[in-house]
């Protein structure tokens, strides 16, 4: 069997590995270039250390900054077209989805999955071992069913000093009728292995820069999976697939792609490759773009629709005492109490991350604090003490609000072309009242938690800031979480979904679209682990079909 | 003590010895000729000179981080689990 996988990111690298291990000849076509070797250095000298900043970009395969926003709200989640994909820059936080997340439509919001948590649970375990996740099963059982006797491949990472400080106050307390409990967050970074698991790379040594770069490779990236590819897997970078071809019966026959050498121009040569099976794994937005360009898989008219993200709310405050921010991974624990239950019928549920990196994301600390104190006239010892006191007490809460699948939130093809002559993705994006009510409830939960902690709340959202809005008279703001999903949504019928339960396009028996784009709901979980579990399930299905 | 180091120490609250140990005095002296107080402080505290971070060292030696008592993200590996310990306030 000859398989072509489009995209060498999280899902594509996993699918290619399983197929290669099972006798497939696999060609992986990656639009981006190989990663640059000076990424750490670029990170250090970048003025704004945003997720894509350290990485090589090419004119021929632009990353998310070539999106065109046309809707009422800006879609601001980044993705990276480079070998390894956004999985190079990701946070490495890997919670599972919860059982009720698979049945969002049962409470009248969004869509249901074709099956429930129980079907995916074995693949969650497989993905956790494949990626290498540090977590404690008993701790996770406090809020999630985890199979009896199961062990994560690594022990839970140590909590931060901040985590302990928060937990010692809030555990057992009530906020908005929810009992709070600080729970360790599963992490895709190296800690202490359990018997039977061999570490790949160094143990996390606390560089505190996981997004966008882990200098010691303690964080999982798809490059780790690529190192394990069998000799039957071939990777070609700088190859932008711009069309998938099908015959009259709907069977996919080949892909066309544009190959470029130069990072700065659209100069390219044209090629094609025949395949028995084609797996699109190019990112939710890029998969939809490619299907739309190819005029395939869209008898349901759902390709590109149901675009989701986690609109994130950030709140920030000062603890009464120094907590030592900017140490360790970005978030090591969370509060899971607001992720489900009857509330989700009336407002979007949310997950709360306790943020270890001060006000770095929220407010640009410590540079912003320094500038503020200097502008106020502080100099010398007074300045040094003010910065030390302020920043040492900083922490943030990061709320990931679920966004329901809405067909009006969608990717289409813009008239504008990129340097290769391919359409730029056009994004029409909005936030429903359900999401806004969730953001507002998150803000109220933040108020309650800060009050319990005796924290000095410095959160402010101003009308001149990006992504500011008001809801029920309250100022709010949202940030993009980088969790694009839904654009080739999975379902039980070809009438209203793009892929079936195996992520196979209903309209084409040998065309698969894998990744977060298949997810009918994102729940409140960072989605990469669920994407990995789905990829492994699809790969197993492909292998069994070939036998 | 030379005038640039003296002025820098007075503005930043870090001693001449602390400033010298960054290895950045000569580079900053050359950059900061004619600069305002606020620019000199920003350079020492954040490594930013007129919208640019000139070198990795400028970032890694930022005094704002030393005032907090941590290394800037991506510049040092304090060790597995170090984040669990009681924070060390200023390096003073």
UniProtKB/TrEMBL annotation, chain A:
Swiss-Prot/TrEMBL keywords: FAD, Flavoprotein, Oxidoreductase
Pfam families: GMC_oxred_C, GMC_oxred_N, NAD_binding_8
Location of the 4Fe-4S ferredoxin-type domain: 195-224
Protein name (database record): Dehydrogenase
Similarity field: Belongs to the GMC oxidoreductase family.
Organism: Lentzea cavernae
Cofactor names: FAD
InterPro entries: 4Fe4S_Fe-S-bd (IPR017896), FAD/NAD-bd_sf (IPR036188), GMC_OxRdtase_N (IPR000172), GMC_OxRtase_C (IPR007867), P2Ox-like (IPR051473)
PANTHER family with a match to the protein in the record: PYRANOSE 2-OXIDASE (PTHR42784)
Lineage top rank: taxon: Bacteria
Lineage, uppermost ranks: Bacteria, Bacillati, Actinomycetota, Actinomycetes, Pseudonocardiales
Automatic annotation (TrEMBL), chain B:
Name of the protein this chain belongs to: Uncharacterized protein
Lineage: Bacteria, Bacillati, Actinomycetota, Actinomycetes, Pseudonocardiales
Organism: Lentzea cavernae
Region (Disordered) residue spans: 71-92
Top-level taxon of the source organism: Bacteria
